[in-house]
């Protein structure tokens, strides 16, 4: 059978999602080790989006195939028993064989969280990006609207991005302040490598007043990553939801309660 899972993790101590060389801690390796113990046989896991070192997820989706017959509750509770404290299975559902966590996805949601206050936060130091200069969240929001729609995002992807096409549809992007926290919320059909962090870097520069609001559009139109500004740090980034066609009946994730 094929089983889909909801996964959440604090990426602070992981070297990203993907399994790497021995001794390098990854979410995929920890999850496969835990599920293999429940299945009593090797398990290979595929995810919706490979997050980078330090990036978190509250709504990651993965799937695996197995011949082991276990109640869904056993995959959840048994898997969590064998997972470390900073990774967790939130739900498990049997799905059809044509479901694929990555290739069946029709949309992805990310949130980038900035602590905008004079002093850094001891409690959130690994979970938000600290900017001590005052940021104009309204200017950042206006600048972000230049990026909405279907565009060539070459200026906003990593130089080493291996995607065949730089064209993506950014369906919605918003910036809003909640006290000392600024949230950048993005929804697209798919994202390029470092696309969210590069967008955040441009918007932060605009929020500081270092660049005009139109700079986000100018960077987009140049289609040149070397002219695209600074890549924002990873610790403020969260994969919050992955969307699928309703036929697969994939559960929606719980709201990201940590930051409102």
N-to-C CA distance: 37 Å
CATH topology of the largest domain: Alpha-Beta Plaits
Tell me the radius of gyration. 19 Å
Shape: globular
Q: For this structure, what is the CATH class of the largest domain?
A: Alpha Beta
Structural domain count:
2
Mean pLDDT equals: 94
Question: What's the CATH H-level homologous superfamily of the largest domain?
Answer: Pseudouridine synthase I, catalytic domain, C-terminal subdomain
- Total number of helices: 5
Tell me about the biggest sheet?
Answer: 10 strands, mixed
- Proportion of strand residues: 25-35%
Q: Outline the low-pLDDT stretches.
A: none
Task: Give a quick summary of the entry.
The chain is built from five helices and ten strands.
List its traits:
260 residues; alpha+beta; Alpha-Beta Plaits; 2 domains; 20% helix
